[in-house]
């Protein structure tokens, strides 16, 4: 735990808004009753929910540029900084791994390691953070930009021109694309996302363009830190670059569809462009114009983003270990029973699911607000 340092308020606000949205869409009362904007696209395409994770990875990139700039300027500190980045990335990976294996250890400990999912959201954040941090420290701004372009081009080429054994070229279907084939070969079906068993939305190959998303954020962070450019110019160029990336992503979509599960190159540009526009707006309103009063609820989320994301994933797993008996004699988790008793009778199914998710977000806000007032930031 540490006292908070001076921070870019708009970035904390944007991070907090993103994490709150992650928790909202990850915790509906019922997965069978969700409003369309709060669901992921079935495959190709992009809903507001599909923007949440890339926004967060993009923000990680911006944060790297702010947090590691002094180390980048002093090569003698690179080794120490890289070691810290690796430790932090591994911590994130094992937090995600812990969430994946937690229930399995309780229900079937003998087979937990044989069936646990190896990759996931926190695992991807950790891996991308390590790779992107090293690139930031060792490469110039121009090289980082070139690396981003190469990553997008190489991933497109791999997915388009490398034949999938037994399938052929340029296949973008769920189970027969190159990324899915690699996931099954490296991770094996036992360690892939349980909802599919044949492909993983945070899989091996698609981690490459996810690094691209983070590098996009790093480039924005470098731009935002420049002291030789005034604020109106920063905002104008960031808006322009963001809109250009969105347009390029939409054009590329015709040939290489925007797809979150595959983290396609068009998706990197589209989501990164929208994130750039969003941060430009937040920066102008909050940091430049000084409208700050409305930011507190999301800043509270932003300064302890990983902490609340981990706790939000852990709490249902822990509470539903407590089994209660229903009137019909069957047993269910206490959290499920609470939802059935206090929400379902008073709302339509889809609204009960939404109100539950909002309640979940507000409940964690109470804890985070206490931490915020005590100046407690838990650095993972």
Q: Could you outline the blueprint of secondary structure elements for this entry?
A:
Layout: H1 9-26, H2 52-67, H3 69-72, H4 78-107, H5 112-115, H6 121-138, H7 141-161, H8 178-186, H9 207-225, H10 231-252, H11 265-288, H12 296-302, H13 305-319, E1 323-325, E2 331-333, H14 334-342, H15 349-373
Helix pairs in contact: 1-2, 1-11, 1-12, 1-13, 1-15, 2-6, 2-9, 2-11, 4-6, 4-13, 6-9, 7-9, 9-11, 10-11
N-end to C-end Cα span: 9 Å
Low-pLDDT runs of 5+ residues are: 1-6
Strand order of the largest sheet: 1-2
Sheet with the most strands, sense and barrel status: 2 strands, antiparallel
Compute the number of strand runs: 2
Structural class: mainly alpha
Number of helices: 15
Helix content: 55-70%
Give the SSE order as H and E letters.
HHHHHHHHHHHHHEEHH
Radius of gyration: 21 Å
Task: Report the mean per-residue pLDDT as an integer.
Answer: 93
Strand % is under 5%
Q: Which term fits the overall shape?
A: globular
């Amino acid at each position: 735990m540490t006292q908070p340092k001076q921070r870019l308020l708009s970035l904390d606000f944007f991070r907090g808004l993103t994490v709150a949205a992650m928790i909202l869409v990850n915790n509906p009362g019922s997965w069978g009753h969700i409003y369309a904007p709060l669901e992921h696209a079935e495959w190709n395409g992009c809903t507001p929910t599909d923007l949440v994770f890339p926004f967060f990875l993009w923000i990680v990139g911006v944060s790297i540029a702010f947090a590691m700039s002094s180390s980048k300027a002093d090569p003698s500190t690179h080794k120490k900084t890289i070691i810290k980045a690796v430790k932090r990335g591994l911590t994130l990976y094992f937090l995600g791994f812990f969430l994946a294996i937690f229930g399995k250890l309780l229900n079937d400990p003998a087979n937990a390691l044989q069936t646990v999912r190896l990759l996931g959201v926190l695992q991807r954040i950790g891996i991308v953070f390590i790779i992107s941090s090293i690139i930031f420290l060792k490469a110039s701004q121009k090289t980082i930009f070139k690396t981003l372009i190469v990553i997008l081009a190489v991933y497109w080429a791999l997915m388009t021109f490398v034949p999938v054994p037994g399938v052929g070229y340029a296949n973008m279907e769920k189970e027969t694309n190159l990324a899915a084939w690699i996931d099954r070969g490296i991770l094996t079906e036992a360690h892939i996302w349980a909802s599919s068993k044949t492909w993983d939305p945070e899989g091996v190959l698609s981690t490459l363009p996810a690094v691209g998303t983070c590098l996009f954020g790093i480039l924005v962070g470098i731009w935002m830190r420049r002291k030789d450019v005034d604020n109106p110019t920063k905002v104008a160029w960031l808006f322009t670059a963001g809109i250009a990336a969105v347009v390029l992503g939409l054009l590329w979509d015709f040939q290489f569809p925007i797809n979150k599960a595959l983290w396609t190159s068009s998706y990197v540009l589209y989501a990164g462009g929208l994130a750039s526009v969003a941060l430009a707006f937040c920066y102008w309103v909050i940091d430049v114009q000084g409208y700050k009063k409305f930011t507190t609820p999301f800043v509270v989320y932003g300064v302890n983003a990983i902490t609340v994301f981990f706790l939000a994933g852990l709490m249902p797993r822990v509470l539903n270990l407590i089994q209660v008996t229903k009137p019909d004699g069957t047993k269910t988790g206490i959290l499920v029973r609470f939802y059935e008793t206090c929400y379902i009778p008073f709302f339509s199914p889809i609204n009960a699911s939404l109100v539950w998710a909002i309640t979940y977000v507000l409940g964690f806000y109470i804890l985070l607000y206490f931490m915020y007032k005590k100046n407690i930031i838990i650095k993972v």
